[in-house]
């Protein structure tokens, strides 16, 4: 092994932490002096304890619970994130008590007070909504301003800018052009709607974060700490490492397995990539491609049951369905995500003639499971409680409790009793602190998205945009149907064309939004706008939500802000932008899938009218479409493709996923020229490999 590879081979826990902080602004915490560090850590620990207790013994009244969570979060954001520039070493002065600037202390206090004000006056709230007191407007204004600044610090400028534009739209409604015009709202009415009602800041988004997401983030952190993530990586290596391009396939499979307990793309990238990326480079993958594989795979964690990202829990509230319904619906889309990346990885390995890992480089699956089986207990408990019909937060409570039990057992096995107790307390403290830290950015983002959703409900802009988009799509559909009328059969109806163009526009906006904001915020904004659009065209609500969700997952691999790809590039020492573009290309193989489950909803398993016949036809069509589109993108099927073959395969992929027999037949016919020319080349390639071995 070369010196260069050795240097990249082993990343310490501290190095992985530094990489995650460098590329993920959501965990880029400021250095603190010891006294303030203890204060902050204690507040984080108390926040985790509060949620752990309420998950097991009952959630308080909704507004009180949400306000308490938001107050803790806002105070901690201003203690944890700097306002501008680099994170400098703090100094204790008159202007920086305990090393924190005075303005941060002021903002933290204002955030806490304004967040707790609504729960405090809750009993009188019914008399104030619609006729707020001056103090209500003042407190609401303070919270909106503080929330904008907190989100900017934790996540950057894009989301606050979008929120400000929506607020401006609500205020200057009379000046808007065309169909977007509305009477406008006074600042008092805007604050009343966003602050005092459940349609704004204290709405569903914040409720889901404080009631569900926090607990599952904490579970994921603790499950990773007891070794469940490492077990997944070792098992993936044992199962897939020996095949062509083995480390890349290990990357895909381990990311899928780790994604089942971690909804964070960047954390997944750093954890698995620290092992898989150096191995990919060692067998011959280019550095940027190795980084791209890990990034594209890791984004799937957000759609992989049972511990999905925040969006799964948002769907529970918006759709009014059990979590088990969401998890069941997510199974096939999650499989298609990883299948799409795996196909491109395999084709790239064949194109480059890359080997698998040798027997000496691979762990033994049984030995791996025998050594780490105990770490699977929390996941088993979590899934069992979920399937029993209990609430998600109660399932998370028992999952966290199981993690703590495993942690104690592991320490008792490794140490004497006294040391075991000390280590268990220390690791529990660390896990609770880190879990709470990871929730800060998603909480302020959800609260600020509540502002955007509040403006949509206040102004009705969602339905106005819906009519605009469907009208535009309908016009395009009429034009295309004229061109298609020359065929002796109807390839696709005008209604289906209208829906297709609407979906394309929605998908493009999702991808563009993903350039600047994370998946959760992307989903919340798009569903507020896109749900009315797709609803007008008869799309089932569950299907519409999954369509937006699936495309929103591309946010972390969408240049120019492909954060997961940039983190992977840091590990691979590769060009970050090149890695981002390649990761986006690897994700392109599965872009067809959301269109499949819109036109064939049975792919989601739990929609009305489900049939096994439609499910199997849609699944096979999607897999075939992903495969041929991946071949066209990778420029390889069984051998290099000619230009016309790539074009035919790309067209075939679109037709193979269409829910129409004629379209499927035409798609299959378009594949034939490439197959006829390439099948003889496959035989020669196999014989050549056999001779080499």
UniProtKB/TrEMBL annotation:
Function: Part of the tripartite ATP-independent periplasmic (TRAP) transport system.
Any one annotated GO CC term: plasma membrane
InterPro entries: DctM, TRAP_DctM-Dct_fused
Name by which UniProt lists this protein: Putative membrane protein
Domain called TRAP C4-dicarboxylate transport system permease DctM subunit: residue spans: 143-606
Organism (species): Oceaniovalibus guishaninsula JLT2003
Subcellular location: Cell inner membrane
Main location group: membrane
Organism phylogeny: Bacteria, Pseudomonadati, Pseudomonadota, Alphaproteobacteria, Rhodobacterales
GO molecular function, one term: transmembrane transporter activity
Membrane topology term: Multi-pass membrane protein
UniProt KW keywords: Cell inner membrane, Cell membrane, Membrane, Transmembrane, Transmembrane helix, Transport
Membrane-spanning segments: 35-55, 67-85, 105-122, 129-148, 154-172, 201-222, 318-343, 364-387, 393-413, 444-469, 489-512, 524-551, 557-577, 589-610, 616-638, 647-676
Domain of life: Bacteria
Alphabetical list of NCBIfam families matching this protein: TRAP_fused
């Amino acid at each position: 092994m070369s010196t260069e590879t050795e240097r990249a081979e082993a990343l310490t826990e501290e190095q992985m932490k530094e990489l995650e902080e460098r590329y993920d602004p959501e965990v880029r915490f400021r250095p603190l002096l010891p006294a303030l560090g203890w204060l902050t850590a204690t507040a984080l620990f108390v926040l985790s304890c509060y949620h752990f207790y309420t998950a097991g013994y009952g959630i308080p009244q909704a507004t009180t619970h949400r306000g308490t969570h938001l107050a803790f979060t806002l105070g901690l954001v201003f203690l944890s994130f700097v306002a501008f520039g680099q994170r400098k070493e703090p100094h204790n002065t008159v202007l920086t008590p305990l090393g924190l600037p005075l303005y941060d202390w002021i903002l933290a206090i204002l955030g806490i007070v304004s967040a707790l004000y609504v729960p405090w006056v809750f009993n009188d709230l019914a008399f104030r909504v619609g006729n707020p007191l001056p103090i209500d407007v003042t407190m609401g204004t303070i919270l909106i301003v503080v929330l904008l600044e907190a989100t900017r610090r934790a996540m950057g400028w894009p989301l606050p800018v979008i929120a400000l534009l929506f607020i401006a739209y609500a205020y200057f409604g009379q000046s808007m052009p065309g169909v977007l015009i509305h009477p406008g709202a006074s600042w008092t009415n805007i604050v009343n709607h966003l602050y005092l009602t459940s349609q704004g800041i204290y709405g569903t988004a914040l409720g889901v974060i404080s009631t569900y997401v926090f607990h599952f983030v904490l579970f994921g952190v603790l499950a990773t700490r007891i070794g469940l993530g490492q077990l997944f990586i070792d098992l993936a290596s044992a199962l897939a490492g020996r095949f062509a391009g083995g480390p890349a396939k290990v990357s895909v499979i381990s990311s899928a397995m780790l994604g089942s307990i971690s909804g964070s793309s960047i954390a997944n990238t750093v954890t698995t990539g620290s092992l898989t990326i150096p191995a990919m480079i060692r067998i011959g993958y280019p550095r940027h491609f190795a980084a791209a594989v890990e990034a594209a795979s890791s984004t799937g964690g957000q759609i992989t049951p049972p511990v999905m990202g925040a969006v799964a829990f948002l769907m529970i509230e918006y759709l009014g369905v059990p979590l088990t319904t969401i998890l069941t619906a997510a199974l096939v889309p999650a499989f298609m995500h990883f299948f799409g990346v795996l196909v491109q990885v395999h084709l790239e390995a064949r194109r480059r003639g890359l080997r698998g890992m040798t027997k000496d480089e691979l762990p033994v699956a049984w030995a791996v499971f025998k050594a780490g089986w105990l770490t699977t207990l929390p996941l088993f408990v979590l899934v069992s409680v979920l399937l029993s019909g209990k609430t998600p937060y109660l399932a998370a409570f028992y999952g966290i409790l199981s993690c703590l039990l495993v942690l104690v057992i592991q320490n008792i096995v490794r140490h004497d009793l006294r040391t075991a107790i000390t280590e268990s307390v220390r690791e529990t403290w660390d896990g609770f602190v880190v879990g709470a830290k990871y929730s800060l950015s998603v909480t302020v983002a959800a609260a600020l998205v509540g502002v955007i959703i509040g403006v949509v409900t206040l102004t009705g802009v969602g339905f106005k945009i819906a009519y605009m988009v469907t009208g535009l799509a309908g016009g395009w559909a009429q034009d295309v149907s004229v061109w298609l009328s020359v065929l002796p059969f109807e390839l696709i109806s005008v209604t289906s064309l209208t829906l297709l163009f609407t979906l394309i526009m929605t998908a493009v906006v999702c991808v563009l939004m993903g350039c600047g904001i994370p998946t959760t915020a992307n989903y919340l904004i798009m569903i507020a706008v896109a749900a009315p659009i797709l609803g007008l065209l008869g799309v089932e609500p569950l299907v519409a939500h999954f369509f937006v969700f699936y495309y929103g997952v591309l946010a972390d691999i969408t240049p120019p802000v492909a954060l997961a790809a940039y983190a992977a590039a840091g590990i691979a020492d590769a060009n970050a932008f090149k890695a981002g573009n390649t990761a986006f290309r690897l994700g392109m193989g599965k872009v067809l899938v959301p269109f499949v489950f819109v036109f064939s909803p049975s792919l989601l398993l739990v929609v009305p009218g489900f049939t096994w016949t439609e499910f199997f036809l849609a699944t096979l069509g999607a897999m075939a479409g992903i495969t041929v589109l991946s071949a066209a993108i990778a420029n390889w099927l069984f051998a290099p493709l000619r230009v016309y073959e790539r074009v035919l395969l790309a067209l075939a992929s679109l037709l193979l996923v269409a829910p129409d027999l004629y379209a499927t037949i035409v798609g299959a016919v378009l594949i034939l020229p490439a197959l006829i020319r390439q099948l003889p080349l496959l035989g020669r390639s196999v014989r050549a490999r056999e001779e080499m071995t």
